[in-house]
Amino acid sequence: MPVLELSAASPRDSTPRYVGVTKLFALLLGAEHYKTEVVESEKVSTSFFKVGDSKVELLEASDPQSPIAKFIEKRGEGIHHLAFEVADIKASMKKLKEEGFTLLNEEPKTGADNKLVCFLHPKHTTGVLVELCQDIK
Amino acid sequence: MPVLELSAASPRDSTPRYVGVTKLFALLLGAEHYKTEVVESEKVSTSFFKVGDSKVELLEASDPQSPIAKFIEKRGEGIHHLAFEVADIKASMKKLKEEGFTLLNEEPKTGADNKLVCFLHPKHTTGVLVELCQDIK
Fold first, then answer.
1. How many CB atoms lie within 10 A of CB B79?
2. Order of strands across the sheet with A130-135?
3. Nearest to A42 by CA among A124, A115, A94
4. Using CB atoms, which residue from B23, B29, B120 is nearest to A2?
5. Tens digit of pLDDT for each residue in B24-33?
6. Do B128 and A2 touch (CB under 8 A)?
7. pLDDT, tens digit, for every residue of A103-115?
8. Which ipTM score applies to this complex?
9. Helices (H), B33-119
10. Rounded to a whole number, what is the distance in Å from the CA of B40 to chain A's nearest CA?
11. Contact assignment for B20 to A120 by CB distance below 8 Å
């Protein structure tokens, strides 16, 4: 079953605001984040909240060169991307490419939470940055 | 249990791109949207996709004065807001106000999908527009 994952971006130096949204999600969901993880390759710190069978992931840039820092510079803080779990990421990538969507990486790469991931270019997705992800077995 | 709802905004006149994201979600989720609804008070057309126990809602402005049209004018197309289902919206609004969050409406208003809703000001939520919602019984 596809699982929705929602990621919100926060800059490195905005601890009070980051705490704001962390506190908000904990209040709304009745639980603190259940895990934190640093993805060195993407220069990002993450924390995860469970919401039913979906999850919300908070992203914080750990370096000014991080894609998250660049996103915030361009668009401001806010919701970053939307992830869908797929059974076979290579098959989904091939199918979506055939349908006219643009892949941001031609091969799956390793993301947070033990997943292979691929992003789609937002120019064909109404500006919504969409990530496909598949558990690494 | 709180349910995540993710809303993406699309302008009225961008049918090809709107079809793009509609097609993408149908491909990823293996099903078309299960419902459409017009919310006259917000001047918006909506369509809903199921994702596990959460849902993705697509929003399209039906009038240039719609809050969605204004959002797109300011920030461009993309993910609009994140909704959390709560058991008692008035109690949640009171608690969040006491915690220092700012409500965009002091009384719950009627939203899509038979819900009472209240939005929080993004200045205290790391730029993430958050909606509380509760089923109207």
1. 27
2. A35-39, A44-51, A54-61, A4-10, A78-85, A130-135, A115-120, A109-111
3. A115
4. B29
5. 888 888 888 8
6. no
7. 999 999 998 888 9
8. 0.83
9. 67-75, 89-98
10. 23
11. no
Q: List the single residue in B23, B79, B132 with the smallest CB-CB distance to A79.
A: B79
If phi > 0 it is left, if psi is from -120 to 50 it is alpha, else beta; for residue B103 that is: beta
Structure tokens at B40: 């006259």
Beta bridge partners of A54: A51
**How far is B97 from B92, CA to CA, in rounded Å?**
8
Residue A5 identity: E
Nearest CA in chain B to A92: B28
Q: How far A81 CA sits from the closest chain B CA (Å)?
A: 8
pLDDT digits (tens, 9 = 90+) for A74-132: 878 888 888 888 999 999 999 999 998 999 999 999 988 889 999 999 888 888 889 99
- In contact, B92 and A42? CB cutoff 8 Å: no
Global pTM value: 0.85
Please state the separation of Cα B48 from the chain's center in Å. Answer: 10
Beta strands in A2-72 (DSSP E): 4-10, 35-39, 44-51, 54-61
Q: Which residue in chain B is spatially nearest to A123 when comparing CA positions?
A: B17
